[in-house]
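pasting for ref. prot 1 ->
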Amino acid sequence: MTKLKSKYQRDESLLIDSLIRKGQLTFITQIQLIETSKIKNHQIYDCTYVDNGVKKQVNIIALDISDAVVKVESIVESGIPQPTANILLGSETLNKNQ
């Protein structure tokens, strides 16, 4: 893996502020696989994103990273608070019908 030049490496808060100043209020900053789920063929992802200028962090139970992105897209710009989003996306009970 190639190393990114230092001029392109910023602290996350500076990067978020820069994007918000440019008018981009909703975006994902990081998705990381953290564990396997009890649900067959599912994993648990940690996702940090900005929703209407507010940084949020949730755990998502999903089939793969594409499924995790789709799930985040379904809740952004809806006004759902972070704790509620975490319950909706990170609950094995709510995701077991998949």
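and prot 2 ->
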Amino acid sequence: MDERWRVPVIPLKVEPTDEITITRSGRVMRDYRFVFRREDIERMRAGYVCIRCFEPHEHAWPERCHLCGLEMRAKQAHFFSQWFDPQEEVVRISRDWEAEMEGLDERRRKEEERARKDDQQRR
């Protein structure tokens, strides 16, 4: 890769936990523990990688993750302190599944809007 910051974050291990989240609609979602390389954990701690979707960013602490929309500047440090276990070098991800689903719809709408604008510009 040309740019060092683009190196993907790939978990070394993913383990289901006994913890679950029940969404407002009643859907049961299992939480997971992710094991990462020390370097990747440090990139999350320093704000260069989104702790929710693991997307790398060129600059630390962007306002929002450009992939999943997490408010990194406002929320990532808090999530890191809750989810990271320094003794095990593990990040336990507990997702807000309702917000995830809403975010998917919003990203789909934005992508469709961009596609329409691109089509109009080409004409």
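Residues 4-95 form one domain.
The mean pLDDT is 84.
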